[in-house]
Amino acid sequence: MYDIIAIGNALVDTEFKITDDTLSATGLTRGNMTLAELDTQNALFATLAQAGNSPAKQAGGGSAANSVVAFSALGGRAFYNCRVGGDDMGDFYLADLEKSGVTTDASVAIDPDGTTGSCVVLVTADGERTMQTHLGTSSQINENNINFDALSGAKWLYLEGYLAMSPSITTGLAKLRQNAKDQGVKVAVSFADPAVVKFARAGLDDMLAGGVDAIFCNLDEAMLYTGADSHERAVQALGQYATLVVVTNGDKPTLIAHHGDIISVPSLAVRQVLDTNGAGDNYAGAFLYALTQGHPLAQCGRLAAHVSARIVSQFGPRLSHADYQAIKSEVLG
Q: What are the C-alpha distances in Å from 221 to residues 61, 67, 94, 215?
């Protein structure tokens, strides 16, 4: 049995440290994710190489994958549904998840003729991350890539907002949600990126249809989705879709609403923000881990704040297993 079952894109992240001028030259929108075809992705790699930018790090990525890696490293049992190509990158991706303690089902995850998705992560001096993603075979993820049996006995089903951009998974997500409801498994949705709200609103509406148990998002995403003009109003507005709403706001306090009652959990001061990639993913993963262990919401927020603060203080969207465990001992004892 697993504590959490997640589904999301399978992407191999390649991260670059770049200047603001280099970012401007790419034409990408700062702080957002842009989808690209393979030739456009390859062109960006070539442009960065010609400008003298070498990759700073390459690792398995994907929003929900980052969340369940954090969840697993803290001590939870996690299963990840995804779709990868039958290529070296796909082998690397599945092995990386296994090494992180996250279970997958290669028999349904691998598309033998597909190309594994990739994400170019551009990090500027202020730590902001801007991404260009080629989904590859992830764009065709469907219900045949889901191990529905893994849901049995789980506590949470976690849905990645980026999937709102993949019409092929609509039927699979509906079936997963219905199975979760039938089995008493709670459902959480992560908005994942402002681009999801801007360009895939209908898909996100489908994920939230009929209500879910939890929503995780940042303030920009919350305000875009609700049209609210403040943090508190955005949290209140999202309360019509979920029992539990968690809205982060960078280095400012996170607001957590449960059945309409709102609490504020401070963020941790960070001496220098190096890379915000994965901060929200880790926040959600750490929060849900503490929640499944029976900790009160404020304590869940404290653990999540400590983990995300460490994430933005380093380069890359995941910590070492030892770092996750050290934070857990410090916050939860």
A: 21, 18, 30, 11
- Hey, which bits of the chain come out as E strands? 4-7, 11-17, 33-35, 57-61, 78-81, 84-85, 102-103, 110-111, 117-123, 129-134, 156-160, 186-190, 212-218, 242-249, 252-258, 261-265
| Distance set, CA 166 to CA 214, 270, 283 (Å) | 21, 36, 24
In CATH, what class is 4-11+62-116+136-332? Answer: alpha beta
Percent of the chain with pLDDT over 70: 100
* pTM for the predicted model, two decimal places: 0.91
Residue 20 has pLDDT above 90, yes or no: yes
pLDDT digits (tens, 9 = 90+) for 82-108: 999 999 999 999 999 999 999 999 999
| Contact by Cβ (8 Å): 161, 192 | yes
- CB neighbours of 91 closer than 8 A, spacing ≥ 6? none
Q: Where are the domains of the chain?
A: 4-11+62-116+136-332
**3-class DSSP assignment, residue 61:** strand
Rounded alpha-carbon distances, angstroms, from residue 270 to 27, 72, 108, 201, 332: 29, 25, 41, 33, 20
Taking residues 301-330, report their average pLDDT. 95
Please provide the average confidence, as pLDDT, over all residues in the chain: 95
